[in-house]
Amino acid sequence: MHPGKTLVYISSLPCDAAARFEVERQMALAGVLVTGLVWEDRFARYDWDLVRRQLEEADGFLLVLGDQYGPTTPTGISMQHRELVHALSLGKSVYCFMFNSMTSSGNSDPRLNELREQVRRQAPVKVWHLTDELSVHAGTLARNWIKDTESRGAAAKAQLSTSPITVSKPVSSGRSQPPREDIELVTQSNVYRGGNLAHQIVRLPMKSDRLWRSLQPLLRLGASEDRLRTHVEQVIASEVKSILLGNNPGSHAVDGIRVERNQFRQILESWQKGGYVEGRRDGARILWSLH
User: What pTM did the predictor assign?
Assistant: First the structure.
């Protein structure tokens, strides 16, 4: 969306507005773009669909963790905790600025202490107490993220210049839709129980023509692989949730349902070989449409 620019999602609570402002200021000075909203119920309810989209579009994730755990979501964990889990599942570059109060021996909220321990295990952490310390951490991180973006961009250009990508032309089969086959759609989801999270896989049996009928309206217009896969994930969400909640007594929420990327790409490519769809290059992505 912003060629050559680094886009960072910042996760913070309203009570940490001063810290967030300083972090955003340092990011802006370095030329880093920032996304993410500070949610307060008096203005708007927490919109997970919007948050998830912003997380997926970002290059990196920065958790500004203060001395409060924050309100919980329907998943049983806080907004920040949920955003952290999703960023990790997406393989984003994750970093944390953790506030250290020098006036108390420790926070008594076990949920916040558990979150802090999880962050220390899974991401680089910089602890700060004074605003000057936070400014230095934020400025250094912003410059490092920009260097990483530039190096990835240079590597991608080198690869494109030496390895041109072609999309094979489909062979027409003379049939209007693919043959009906039995498939097991592999999905991975987040299952929540008592504030804890587990990743679980569900193999969902279905007929291939169900996928075809569901995707036809998008294929008529032309859509990217990510858009097609997201649509399928929305279609099967209620089934997957029902299975997981039934298999995990005591669990109260399921989210982050994802169709296995390689399997879905293989399905599209098999349709392409059969002459039912075609893929054409559009910048860095392939648009799929009916043949």
Answer: 0.63
